[in-house]
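LOG
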Amino acid sequence: MPLPLRPLAALALLACLLLPACRTTDKADADTQGQDPFTGEPKVTADVHYATAQVFESKLETPGPGGTLPSQAEATQLRTAALSQYAAALRLQPNHTPSLHRSAVLLTDMERYDPAIAMWERYVTATGRTASSLVNLGIANERAGRTAAAEKAYREATQVDPTHKTAHVNLGVLLAREGQLQPAQAALSAVLPPA
């Protein structure tokens, strides 16, 4: 049972809690230890949320009792829980690239194309418009049936990295499907030997 504080001691404690000078040292010490300066509890960071989401995602591929994978309903719950954790990470650190990437992958896999494409666009920006990030944006657009946007993303990827095989192949296949055989062949031959 805690001992009761005398009124003067309680007032001194309250004053110390309110004065920044009393907290500065404690806060600095807590920050270096990864703790909340007032509660002493570990800080929850974007990386903590990301790791939690990864646990949910790992359960998608982990057989349960009897060697069966999660049911479709269970898989949806796991994906939703993972997305919730990625969203929490992104609230703390809006450009947390691992969370942007995994959110975009899950949303694309769930065929939630509008939010997936928005997430891929954030990822492209956060990574500095790399060829790989642009290819992923192109794939999401292509899966959503937005061929013009997919072609634009693939073309930009080939400009960013003229040797990026996936960008050229995806562009070539997309153009071939659209009946643009000569441009398709040009895209493919940039990285593949003649067949």
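LOG (cont.) second protein
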Amino acid sequence: MLAVRRETLSIDNEVRVLAWAGVMLIAAGAGIIVKNHLHDLGPLTIAIILGAAAIGCYAWVALKRKANLDEYVVLLGALLISTDVGFIEHQWHILGAQWHRHFLLLAVVHGIAAYAFGSRAVLSLSIAALATWLGVERRPTDEVDFAIRSFIAA
């Protein structure tokens, strides 16, 4: 005779990994679509679509606020904002020689979103953008040289 055990099996970790992988695939797909359809749609249309998609992610989470996977939708919105800001800066050179300042903008926007939605993943994006703005710069030589500026003046 076969004994049946009625234990609860949690698949929470597996679902979270699949949600994260889905967000990464969608964000990568957005980048590929931007690259492949730039000339078909035009840069302004692409910038508007990316911005609308990011706002849609944030709005969905703000209105629903009950699903366990909200953090991943907020992460998708943040990644789409990063893609949009990078695309806009690359396309129109709004900041000119100070192009690296868009990392500060992303740090602030991601920080606000992280605290508004309680997302540690988006907070990590904010910290990474802030670290990039503070420390990594390209020198005006032929080779890429990374100089890490410290918070404390020597």
